[in-house]
């Protein structure tokens, strides 16, 4: 088994972006809205801030209490949409339960949609088009697959997890680029049998160490998107120890899709800036 070193690929992408931003007279500027005190979200925003600043992207965090009313968040996004200094906007997900995620994300100006989750971009994907901005996690999954140099065209793919932010956009993106693709969720019957037939297994379910060797075809590529905390340790949705003898390639957690997602987000910020 070989590791897909997401951290290393991410560092390379960030170095490339830095070379580009160094040449700019004005710089891209990312505004991040963080609502509530979710420790994981707080940590992700800190990492995004650190990496953005390292590559000359301006950064400002808007920290709002967990009980903030939806109208106030929409008001803030509208202000940021109209602020010419701000070239990219991100609302850190997941949001507290009383808020309507779709409504909030659709308020972001698509020309400032750093995470690529605005309905304009998601609908383009759904229609089989390639949007100018890809959802950051989908971009990360594609980069991880590219690094293995496999030919996607003759591979079958299974995606486990059907969320709007990871599973579905990745399904729509890959649909016309691979031999065969299926997407599964918690209602799928005989999941191990279905996964075991596929060359590439992408897992984003939020269930620690759920996928074992029993779900894996010999020499498959395993992309583990999951980030879970178990007894203070970060683990993926894939049981790494169980699958490592069977798979050809695996993304580790931490150090796989996580850092790649941050670099794809910042790549999106640079792209949005270049469209101005
Ligand atoms: P959601 O909770 O929004 O969606 C989870 C999906 O997984 C649902 O479709 C659900 O099914 C399905 N699911 C849950 N349990 C099972 C099961 N036992 N068998 C099959 N399907 C199952 O999760 P997200 O997509 O937001 O996140 C998934 C994971 O990815 C989390 O660990 C999260 O932390 C991580 N993540 C990582 C990112 C990164 O950058 N690396 C970015 C975003 C998320 P159903 O539809 O039936 O409910």
TrEMBL record:
One GO BP annotation of this record: purine nucleotide biosynthetic process
Sequence ranges assigned to domain Tetrahydrofolate dehydrogenase/cyclohydrolase catalytic in this UniProt record: 4-115
Annotated NADP(+) binding sites: 161-163, 227
Annotated coiled-coil segments of the chain: none
Any one Gene Ontology cellular component term annotated for this protein: cytosol
Catalyzed chemical reaction(s): (6R)-5,10-methylene-5,6,7,8-tetrahydrofolate + NADP(+) = (6R)-5,10-methenyltetrahydrofolate + NADPH; (6R)-5,10-methenyltetrahydrofolate + H2O = (6R)-10-formyltetrahydrofolate + H(+)
Pathway annotation: One-carbon metabolism; tetrahydrofolate interconversion
GO terms of molecular function: methenyltetrahydrofolate cyclohydrolase activity; methylenetetrahydrofolate dehydrogenase (NADP+) activity
EC number per UniProt: 1.5.1.5, 3.5.4.9
Top-level taxon: Bacteria
Key words of the record: Amino-acid biosynthesis, Histidine biosynthesis, Hydrolase, Methionine biosynthesis, Multifunctional enzyme, NADP, One-carbon metabolism, Oxidoreductase, Purine biosynthesis
Signal peptide: none
Residues of the Tetrahydrofolate dehydrogenase/cyclohydrolase NAD(P)-binding domain: 135-271
InterPro entries xref list: Aminoacid_DH-like_N_sf, NAD(P)-bd_dom_sf, THF_DH/CycHdrlase, THF_DH/CycHdrlase_cat_dom, THF_DH/CycHdrlase_CS, THF_DH/CycHdrlase_NAD-bd_dom
One Pfam entry name: THF_DHG_CYH_C
Biological role: Catalyzes the oxidation of 5,10-methylenetetrahydrofolate to 5,10-methenyltetrahydrofolate and then the hydrolysis of 5,10-methenyltetrahydrofolate to 10-formyltetrahydrofolate.
Quaternary structure, from the entry: Homodimer.
Family: Belongs to the tetrahydrofolate dehydrogenase/cyclohydrolase family.
Stated name of the protein: Bifunctional protein FolD
Gene name linked to the record: folD
